[in-house]
C-alpha cells in the first residue's frame, strides 16, 4: 500500500519494557484503565496528552519483556499509528504488527526531538523529519507483513483468508 | 550443508529440507500453550469474531496460573472464563491451579526434543531446556495459531554460549544467567536463538537448565535451546512420555553460529541484579548490605523443587530476620507435594517462611505478596522492571534461591556462601 502517516512524535529512550507500557497492577481492568497508566513511570503526561495519529520514536529494545499484547494494544487505543525504534523486543514487534501498528526500525533517529513532526511511508521505509526538512530511512518490512499491517492487523487478515477458503469450498 | 539445532527443528516444522537465517517460513505448530491471563480471555473474542474453532484441541494446553487463586471478583471472572472456554473447546490438557505453566508443561510430559511449540507467555523459552523450539507469542498471534495450526517466523541465527568448568558451592544456573544479562544486555539476544553448550551445561539437572533457558527471555532472544542428552531423556521418561530419537535433534558439528560467548564457571560468583533491570547484575559482593523488607522465592524461574531445596539448605537451623518477611510460592502442586514429602517445606516454615499458593502471584504483581511504595524485595524471579512487583517506587533485586534465603536471614542482601558449609548438605 502507499499510505503515509504524518504526525507529532513522542520520544523515548532505550529499554522501554512491557511493564512500563502495560503495568501489571492494571492488567485485570479495562483497556481504558490500563491505557491511562501507559508509560506513566517514564512520562506521566503521555497517556493524558497523546492524541490520535501521533507517533512514538524510541531507542533500543522497545517493548522488551512480557508477551502481554496489551503493551501494543494500549498504544493503538491511545491513537498511536506508528512506532519507529532502533530495535524492538521480538514478541512486542509481532504484537504491534498483529494490531495493525506500523513498527519500523531505523538507526537514523538521533535528531528527532519530542514534539517534532514526521511523516512515514511504510511501503518504502521513507521517514521525513518535517521540522528539519530531512529524509531519513527505516528498514523495510517483508511484503507479507506489510500486507497484514495494511489490512489492519492479523484478525482482519485472517478474516480475509477464511472468507477466501469459504469461497473456494463453495 | 550443516545446520544448527534450531534450523533443523524449524525446517522440519516448515516441511522443507533446510532453512537459512533471515528467511521467513510458515511452521506447523506441534503444541500451543496458553495461560489464564493471555489465553482464553484474549483469544475467545477473536475466535468468535472469526466464527471458527480450535484447529486441534489435543495440541492445546491451557494452564491457570497468573490469577490463582482468585483474590477478587475480577480475577475470579478471568479464571471462570478460562474454565468454561477449556470445557467448551474440548481442551483435554487443562491444568487448573496445578502450578505455573512453564513448570507444569514439562512435569506432565508435554515437551519432547524436536518439537515446535508456541507459548502465550514470554518465558516460553523455558521449554528449550528440553531440546524443543519453544517461543513466546502474544494473544492475537495465538488466535492465529488456534485457527490455522501454523505461524510464521523469520529463521533466527544461533548465538552459542559455551559454558565450561565446575560451579562453586552456592553458585547456580541463576547466577550464570544473571552474569550473562550483565554481559550481553537485554538486547544481546537480538531475537535470535541462544544455544547453550559445554560441560557445565551437561552437568546441570533439568530444573537448573530450565532456569537458564527461562531467563534467556531477559537477553531478548527468541528462545534458548539445550540439545537433549541422557539427563533430558531420563526426565521425560519419568513423566511417562517417550523422548523419541534424540540423535536427530543435535546441531551439526560444523554448524554456523553468529557468535560464540564463553563462560568460565569456575570463576563465577553468586550474582544479584539491582533495580530495575536484569542487566544491572553484578557479583553479590558489590551489592550486599542493602536492607530488604521482603524476600520472595517464587515463579517458574525460582521455585522448582531444587530451588526450594537450595533455600532450605541455607535456612536450616536459621531464622528469618524480624525486619524481613520471606514468602515462598512453590512453582507447582507437584513441587509442593515433593517438598512436603522430603521435609523441605518443614525446614522452610520452621525458619519462619510463609507458604503461598502455586502461581505467578507477586512475580507479575498480579496476585498476593506485592510491595508497598519504597519497599525493597530480593526475589528469585526473572524480572525486576520498575513497578513489576507492586508500587511504582518499590525496588526489586534478583538473585538465586540461595541468595534470597541468605538475605532473608540477615535482612540485607547477603552472600549465601557464608551460610553453606560441609555439614550443611541438602
Ligand atoms: S511466574 Fe512470573 S515469570 Fe513465570 S510465568 Fe508467571 S508471571 Fe511469568
Tell me the layout of helices and strands.
The complex is a heterodimer of chains A (170) and B (426).
Chain A: E1 4-11, H1 18-21, H2 31-36, H3 46-49, E2 55-58, H4 70-77, E3 82-85, H5 90-98, E4 102-105, E5 117-121, E6 126-129, E7 134-137, H6 143-150, H7 154-169
Parallel strand pairs in A: 1-2, 2-3, 3-4
Antiparallel strand pairs in A: 1-5, 5-6, 6-7
Chain B: H1 5-14, E1 24-28, E2 31-35, H2 40-50, E3 60-64, H3 73-88, E4 93-96, H4 101-107, E5 116-119, E6 133-136, H5 139-148, E7 150-154, E8 158-164, H6 173-184, E9 193-197, H7 199-203, H8 206-214, E10 223-225, H9 230-238, E11 259-264, E12 271-273, E13 281-283, E14 294-297, H10 299-302, H11 305-315, E15 325-328, H12 333-341, H13 344-350, E16 354-355, E17 376-379, E18 395-398, H14 401-410
Parallel strand pairs in B: 2-3, 2-5, 3-4, 5-6, 8-9, 8-11, 9-10, 14-15, 14-17, 15-16, 17-18
Antiparallel strand pairs in B: 1-7, 12-13
Helix pairs in contact in B: 2-5, 6-8, 11-13, 11-14
Iron/sulfur cluster is lined by residues 65, 100, 102, 121, 123, 299-301, 360, 363-364, 381-382 of chain B.
